[in-house]
Amino acid sequence: MAAKVHPNVSAAAAPEPPSQQQDEPPVVLTVWRKSLLFNCHGFTVFDAKGNLAFRLDCYDDASSTRSRRADLVLMDAAGKPLLTIRRKRLSLSDNWIIYDGDGATATPLLSVRRRRVGLRASKAIAHVTPLSSSLPLPEAYVVEGSYGRRSCAVRDARGDAVAEVRRKESVGDDVFRLVAQPRLGAPLAMGIVIAMDEMFRGGRSLLRRTCSA
Fold first, then answer.
1. Pfam families per the record (predicted)?
2. How far apart are CA 142 and CA 34, in angstroms?
3. In this structure, what CATH number is given to the domain that contains residue 44?
């Protein structure tokens, strides 16, 4: 299965940091909802050259102290924590906060909140709000489409997509493409995908396992 997703599964090339240049092309990633580690669940993400870009590993061990902080930690290919995705406690809605690094510094970057079902018709399924002045993201964003069908986009106030989830033909729902514009960057785009996965996967949440950092 790994060879069908991408051939260079042993490569460990870290993703390049996003640039603010307007002419920089988007980053195209292949996302596999599977860990390469034995007895783990999570995500394995490859860049356009087939090199390992990101990973998230959750141990399927019922006897361990699972989900001690209810954290999902996105790492680079070398295992360095990049982002921590944590569900907001005591929230009336399905709300996830994306923190910098391993989350120990409690520096929030983004909020991803599932849209409440109401009487008003809307294409939106979630809202993304920047929480840090250090991010070059001055506005809130909306997620439109269907994550379950692997066809959704994070859009700004003008309707332009800063990240898109697209189907990858002939490999099933657990493998799909993620296209991230430089304005958002690949790590944050992947962090939003992880939050969306928790919101819309029902009883198959990764937080039922123990996640490694």
1. LOR (PF04525)
2. 27
3. 2.40.160.200
Nearest-5° angle of CA 52, CA 40, CA 174? 65
- pLDDT score at 172: 82
Is 93 inside a domain boundary?
A: yes
* Bigger pLDDT: 189 vs 139: 189
**183 contacts: CB under 8 Å, gap ≥ 6:** 18, 20, 136, 137, 162
Whether 53 is covered by a domain: the verdict is yes
Measured CA to CA in angstroms, residue 15 lies from 5, 8, 18, 63, 80 at distances of 18, 15, 9, 35, 12
Amino acid in the structure at residue 81? P
Residue 136 lies in a domain: yes
- Give me the phi and psi of 122, to 5 degrees please: -155, 145
Element (H, E) at 194: helix 186-200
In terms of DSSP bridges, do strands 52-59 and 210-211 run parallel, antiparallel, or are they unpaired? antiparallel
Q: Is the pTM of this model over 0.85?
A: no
Residue 69's domain spans which residues? 27-201
Is 207 a member of any domain?
no
Domain count, the chain: 1
Residue range 83-128, pLDDT digits in tens: 999 998 776 678 999 999 987 877 899 999 998 766 465 789 999 9
First to last CA, the chain: 25
Give rounded-to-5 percent helix, strand, coil for the chain: 10, 40, 50
